[in-house]
Amino acid sequence: MNIPTYTKPAFWGFVGGVLVCVVVGFMWGGWVTGSTARKDASAAAHTATVVALAPRCAEQFRAQPDAAAKIEALAKASSWERSSLVEKSGFAVLPSTKSSDSDIARACSEILLASPVPEKPKN
What we know:
The protein is an all-alpha fold.
């Protein structure tokens, strides 16, 4: 069997083209491995959970009888202590695990401090 003389250069050209395509795809084309895609999806899901549950946490925190005093204490606390104060209230929880989440607590404390406490009407 006779192999044409141009087969070897064509093969190496193909291999080189594949390598260039892979390098360009992963560097600039946005290709990722499966594990990177799973990590990105997990991070996006957690962020969406925090965005969805933080306003609910703030609403429940404000519904407490002594909310004004607790929000005042939250404002006086250092930024490091704020999320732990909200976590202790029990409102910064993930529904699936029933355990507190520091990211939800942090976002909840930011919401609580960004808007004033609504005054309760006097009867």
